[in-house]
Design goal:
The chain has helices spanning 2-13, 23-27, 51-54, 57-62, 64-74, 84-94, 109-113, 139-143, 171-183, 233-241; strands at 17-21, 98-103, 118-120, 123-130, 136-138, 158-162, 186-190, 211-215, 227-230. A 6-stranded parallel sheet has the order 3-2-1-7-8-9, sandwiched between helices. Strands 5-4-6 form a 3-stranded antiparallel sheet. Helix 1 packs across helix 10 and helix 6 (84-94) packs parallel to helix 10. The radius of gyration is 19 Å and the shape is elongated. Strand 2, helix 7 and strand 3 (118-120) form a beta-alpha-beta unit. The two termini are 18 Å apart. It is built from 10 helices and 9 strands. It folds into 2 domains: 1-30 and 81-122 and 168-244, Rossmann fold; 32-76 and 127-162, 2-Layer Sandwich (SIR2/SIRT2 'Small Domain'), CATH 3.30.1600.10. With 244 residues, the protein is α/β, with parallel strands linked by helices. Bound molecules: zinc ion. Residues 130, 132-133, 135, 151, 153-154, 156 line the site of zinc ion. Keywords: Cytoplasm, Metal-binding, NAD, Transferase, Zinc. Its cofactor is Zn(2+). Its EC number is 2.3.1.286. GO terms for molecular function: histone deacetylase activity, NAD-dependent; NAD+ binding; zinc ion binding. Zn(2+) binds at residues 130, 133, 151, 154.
């Protein structure tokens, strides 16, 4: 693919790259994609509710136990490891080329791989807090409960620090992401179908002429991409950083 060598050259020449990633970055590690054909949305569930509803603010408020059952069963996936895409991004950050990873994923795989500047638009499953007093908890604390965890100070309900359907994104995260994207020289967008707003609208803030889109399937932003690389993101990212 001739685009690969052109993009490699761009990466070699730039010290101001931002990576914006979606579910496809994690599927290569075995995390189910919400929207792909085999993802959560198309899985048969025992419950009468849609996955989208089970991950909504409303469902959490009304059925905290069922909500946590669902999160533990479907989102806390044991044994997942960072893949070559995560590793490639660590390399680019370590050699001073990559400014930040902006991700829609909540699985902490970027941090596990060693990335430092990671903006988690949809939150993460490492951090938890009490709805009533705000006390913070970690995953081990939450896992020690059979169902929804309760605060050890005030007995309030403890929730994961993820953005549920019906909730807005953290505004500090969002404005930091906008700043990074609007100031970056090279924007690599990977593993996202670019259909979920507001996250998808973020790339409209990019003002440069080196927008690189990497995806398995066509996206609505393919036409505005300066370089389009179609295929497995872990393979492509690995190839892109070889020798840089
Ligand atoms: Zn509390």
């Amino acid at each position: 693919m001739e685009n690969i060598s052109e993009v490699k050259k761009i990466i070699k020449e730039s010290n101001n790259i931002v990576f914006f990633g979606g579910a496809g970055v994690s599927t290569a590690s075995g995390v189910p994609d919400f929207r792909s054909a085999t993802g959560l949305y198309n899985r048969n569930n025992d419950s009468d509710y849609s996955p989208e509803y089970m991950l909504s603010h409303e469902f959490f408020t009304n059925h905290p136990d069922k909500f946590m059952d669902y999160v533990k069963e479907n989102l806390m996936i044991e044994g997942i490891r960072p893949n070559d895409c995560h590793k490639a991004l660590v390399k680019l950050e370590n050699i001073g080329k990559l400014k930040a990873v902006i991700t829609q994923n909540i699985d902490s795989l970027h941090q596990e791989a060693g990335s430092k500047n990671v903006i988690e638009l949809h939150g993460n499953l490492r951090d938890y807090y009490c709805l009533d007093c705000g006390k913070k908890f970690d995953l081990d604390y939450v896992k020690s409960f059979n169902r929804a965890a309760k605060c050890d100070v005030c007995r309030g309900l403890v929730r994961p620090d993820i953005v549920l359907y019906g909730e807005s994104l953290n505004s500090d995260n969002l404005s930091y992401a906008v700043k990074l994207i609007s100031e970056t020289d090279v924007l690599i967008v990977g593993g996202t179908s670019l259909v979920v707003y507001p996250a998808a609208g973020l790339i409209d803030f990019y003002r440069g002429n080196k927008l690189i889109v990497i995806n398995m399937d066509p996206t609505p932003k393919d036409k505005s991409a300066d370089f389009l690389l179609q295929g497995d993101i872990s393979k492509i990212m690995k190839e892109l950083v070889e020798g840089v």
